[in-house]
């Protein structure tokens, strides 16, 4: 996979936003897979700046990677609400551009199957933004998830709930125990995968993803199977990479027109 080491979050956001802008220029109705959490926010901020500068995203569509199960409609930490606020509103997209699973459905299994159909009928994801957990999970595909898995309900590990408690006022009891997530097999069907990580706390996960063996224990390592996967990390997140100097040199000599 391609590894790009940047100086900070702002540079990371600008680089990925530029890749999305090129995609929109080539395919105005592209389907952009978005992730939540703090890591991708600089990307959405940089995209908003490009839109303010004239980038036309009026036909762009966005889709969710995952969703909590059981949060009431409009809950500020439901991922639908987060995406609506951080992406749809910020970019000025029409409400109909947004695709996501129903975390409040009475039949969650049926809701998962329905979301798989929605993604297929939409033509598939053109570029999927991903974060990575400290344990190597992507989406909510926890360690030992099947590498062929599809959209499904998952039970969160204690570590992931602890990591996400900061979004719930550091009250672990308020963090849902179940989620809907695109499976690893579903994620791998996106045409371009862009994984983001910053900070030393993600360094081990990044190293295991990029340089470790393909393993269900590190779900993000499945990106090694993808023909167009890009990992964009800052210096701290890249600090455990044995080939960091090689990755830096490779990207430094990449033609500017080629992009991510």
UniProtKB/TrEMBL annotation:
It is an enzyme of class 3 (hydrolase). Keywords: Allosteric enzyme, Carbohydrate metabolism, Hydrolase. Pathway: Amino-sugar metabolism; N-acetylneuraminate degradation; D-fructose 6-phosphate from N-acetylneuraminate: step 5/5. The record marks 145, 152, 154-155 as: Part of the allosteric site. Residues 13-225 form the Glucosamine/galactosamine-6-phosphate isomerase domain. It catalyses: alpha-D-glucosamine 6-phosphate + H2O = beta-D-fructose 6-phosphate + NH4(+). Its EC number is 3.5.99.6. Pfam families: Glucosamine_iso. It comes from the Bacteria. The active site is at 66 (proton acceptor), 135 (for ring-opening step), 137 (proton acceptor), 142 (for ring-opening step). InterPro entries: Glc/Gal-6P_isomerase, Glucosamine6P_isomerase, Glucosamine6P_isomerase_CS, NagB/RpiA_transferase-like. Allosterically activated by N-acetylglucosamine 6-phosphate (GlcNAc6P). Catalyzes the reversible isomerization-deamination of glucosamine 6-phosphate (GlcN6P) to form fructose 6-phosphate (Fru6P) and ammonium ion. PANTHER family: GLUCOSAMINE-6-PHOSPHATE ISOMERASE (PTHR11280:SF5). Belongs to the glucosamine/galactosamine-6-phosphate isomerase family. NagB subfamily. This is Glucosamine-6-phosphate deaminase. It comes from Actinocorallia longicatena. The gene is nagB.
């Amino acid at each position: 996979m391609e590894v790009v080491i940047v100086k900070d979050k702002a540079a990371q956001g600008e680089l990925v936003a530029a890749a999305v802008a090129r995609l929109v220029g080539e395919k105005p109705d592209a389907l952009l897979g978005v992730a939540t959490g703090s890591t991708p926010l600089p990307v959405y901020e940089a995209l908003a700046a490009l839109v303010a500068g004239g980038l036309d995203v009026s036909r762009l569509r966005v889709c969710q990677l995952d969703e909590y199960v059981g949060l009431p409609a409009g809950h500020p930490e439901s991922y639908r609400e987060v995406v609506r606020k951080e992406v749809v509103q910020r970019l000025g997209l029409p409400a109909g551009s947004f695709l996501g699973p129903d975390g409040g459905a009475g039949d969650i299994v049926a809701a998962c199957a329905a979301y798989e159909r929605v993604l297929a009928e939409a033509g598939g994801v053109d570029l999927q933004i991903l974060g990575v957990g400290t344990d190597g999970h992507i989406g909510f595909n926890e360690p030992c998830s099947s590498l062929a898995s599809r959209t499904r309900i998952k039970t969160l590990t204690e570590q992931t709930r602890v990591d996400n408690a900061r979004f719930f006022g550091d009250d672990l009891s308020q963090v849902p125990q179940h989620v809907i997530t695109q499976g690893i097999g579903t994620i791998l069907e996106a045409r371009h995968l862009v994984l983001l990580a910053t900070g030393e706390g993600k360094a081990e996960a990044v190293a295991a993803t990029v340089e470790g063996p393909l393993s269900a224990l590190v779900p993000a390592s499945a990106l090694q199977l993808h023909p167009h996967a890009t990992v964009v990390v800052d210096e701290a997140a890249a600090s455990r990479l044995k080939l960091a100097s090689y990755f830096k040199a490779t990207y430094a000599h990449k033609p500017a027109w080629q992009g991510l």
